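Data availability (excerpt). The following record was deposited with the supplementary files.
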Amino acid sequence: MSWWVVVEEQRGSGDGRNWSLSETFRYDDQATAEAEALRLAREYEPAHPWSPKARKVLRGPGGYLVIVEGQMSRFHFRLSVLEEI
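Predicted structure:
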């Protein structure tokens, strides 16, 4: 049994923004995956915005939603902790 942390983030600009699977990380146990998801929520550098100024981390069932404020725009990414079955 494996646990995964999956990073999905907004890519593109303007009306061309879409969700994309950016990264996947495999772990042997849930506790490690949960700890790594929290670390990534605080430290992961998303593709956008290019010049991040602030970060807000929101925790929900199964992961985190992170809102990153840039100089000119706001983007967000999602970290999910998932069990492979």
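Summary of structural features: The chain has one domain: 3-83.
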